[in-house]
Structures are given as structure tokens and as C-alpha cells.
Amino acid sequence: MQLKHSPLNAAALALLGLSGHASGQTAEPGWEFDTSTLVYSEADSRVQAVEPKLRATRYGDDGQILSAAVTVDVLTGASPNGAAPASAPQTFSRPSGNGQYTAAPGETPLDDTFHDTRVAVDGSYTRPLGSRNAVTISANASNEFDYTSFGGGATFTRDFNLKNTSVSVGFNFASDRIDPEGGVPVGLSRVPAPGAPTGRDAGTESKTITDLLASVTQVLSPESLAVFSYSMSLSDGYQTDPYKLLSVVGTDGEPLRYAYEARPDERTKHAIYGQYKRFVFDRDVWDISLRLMTDDWGIVSQTLDTTYRWNFSERRYLEPHLRYYRQSEADFYRAALFDGEENALQFASADQRLGQFDALTVGLKYGQTLDSGNSWSVRLEGYTQLGKTAGVPEQAAAGLSKFDLEPELTAVMLTAGYRFRW
Questions:
Q1: pLDDT by residue (tens digit) across 148-173?
Q2: CATH of domain 7-421
């Protein structure tokens, strides 16, 4: 949204503290670099992640913007495999078939060999088309040991109403390929006993994702602006997690065997988003947004996110952050399957990411601008996820009630960043 010629918009953007890159407003010509590192740690030695990122942006004299970034994710720790807790120890083969791991009685089974390294690159080019229009072309690619993704898209933006209103439409297309360790399992087939062949087929699977987006940004006054958007995402292809499984239990809730999960090959998401940003007390900025999402898997989610940037001096600020997320479970989510149910169902998954839960993120960010004009920031956040038990087979409900099927998940996130111009 190029608003530099509108006095009202220039005042609003300046008062709100929006950067040129974030708003689409042309910044001073030259290079700008953003560096950041995220450290993520879940409790109980679960997933640990370190994510350094570097973005370089070149602002041209004529409003053109060229941007490129590289991100590296290093993940280790233990991840739930989907099986339910049991009264006796449970032993599982690793996906490769080499080695085993054991879950203690009453504990959620965790694969303690979870590890991955992901390298991602992306780039974009924005070019003004006259005084009111602009087009942005983007491309991205990522690679990890069993997953490769390539994508690209375009966004067209047009300004109206003396550049107080900006309308954007865009699309993105991605092609993903997965080559699972140990091969691709047959959905809802029986997981072989430890030490036996894995029952997986050699080969790869793929999927495509098409995203469509339309948004309107409206400057309301020199102190406020609002953003409204609608997006649709269409996924077609292999959606199953090849490393997840389900427990098949008897009336006592104890496992009889295990089955690989299976998910539909198609998924359509719809989301609406609204954001309001306002300058308050002649000093600070309040930002609040709401996102509603629904899909044809039966998941409905709501996300409320708000920050308050307290500029307690000319070059220093504190920014508390609060995010609340609520999600319903997928139609095929099952905490476990009753004996024989795997033969009657087409789809089933015990992945807690598809279950019903509430999540709360609370954090605080400190930022400072240096005499040179460069800036740095550090942010500390805590995350708590509270699952709600769903998908329990009626015949085994009493037996499974003695276990915590949706244990609380907590995590800490620390992000440090430095921005400078060249």
C-alpha cells in the first residue's frame, strides 16, 4: 500500500510507528537487514528448536522493493507418536525399522529420536505500476531430510480514496514432496510388532496447495487504521503424517495393537481476518486482531491477538503480547480406536494438533533504537496448551478414563533480533 502522497496516511503511519516495509510505504533508498534467532523449548524434554533468520531488503529510488531471506530450523527432542497411554510399558519400532523406544506406564508415548534440519529461502519483488498500483512477485523453497517444497505467487494492490484505501488480491501455489524415513505406511493398516518389517512401502508422496487472498486496508484517521481479509486454501494430495499411529484398545482401555493413521487427500480452508491499530495517549500503539477459520475436516478455530507498544522514551519501548487460540477437533480425530474399528473407518488420526484444545501465549518484548539508527529487540514468551478429551470410543471410555489423554503442553520462546541499514 503506497501511501506516501497522502497527508492523512503519512500522519497515520508515522503516528502508528509502521515501518515502510510492513506498510508498503516507500522507505529511504538503500539496503535494510533484519536478523533474528528464535529459541523454542517444550517442557519435559519434548521438542527443542533453534531458528536463525536473515532478511535483506533493497529499497529503490523509484519505489521498487527487492527482498530475500534465508531461515534455518534445527529441531530435536521427543514428539508424541499418537498412541494412547497404557498401564504397562509400550515398545515401538522407530520409523526406519532400526531400533526401538519404550514409553513408561501411564505416560504419553514419545519418539525420542525426533530430529530435523530445515533450510528455507524466499524472495519477493515489488514494482509500482503507475501512481496507484503495485504488483509483488514472490517465490520460496525449503528442504529437510524427508520433505521438499517449492512455491510462488503474486499480489496486485490498488489504492483508492486519495490513497486512504488499499485493496489487494493475490495467490500462492506450492508443490510439496515427502519421502518418509522407512517408507510410506498404508493408512489404518496394522503396525508390525517391534523387530518385524515395518509394513511400509518404498516411494514418495506429494501434494499441492493453492492459496487465494483478498484484503482491504483502510486508514480511518491520523490515529488509526484497519485491515480486513479473506483467504481460501486448497490442499490436494498426501496429507497424512507417516510417523503417527493410533492405539487399538479393548474395553479396559489397554492396547491390543496399533494402526497407522490416515487423513483425507483433500482439504479446503476458509479464513476471515480483521485487525485494528490505534495510536493512544499521544505516545503508544495498541494492536488487536481476530482470525476465524473453518475447514472441511470439521475444524473451527478462533485466534485473538493483541499487543500494546509502550514507548516509554523516544528510543525505547516495551510491548506486552497476549494471544488466545481455540480449536475444535477434526471429524476423524480419535483418541484411540476400539477393537475392529480400524476396519470400518476410512480416516482416523490421534494427532493432538487435530484435536480440541485451547492455547494461551503471553509475552513481553523490549526494543531500542541506537544512535546510529539501527535497532535491536528481545522477546520472551510462554505458551500453554490445554487439550480437551475428544474422540474416545464409547466401549472403552471407562477404561481410558484412568489415563491423561490430553496432557498439558507448555513451552518457552526467546527471540532476539537486530535491524540495520547499509
A1: 999 999 999 999 999 999 999 999 99
A2: 2.40.160
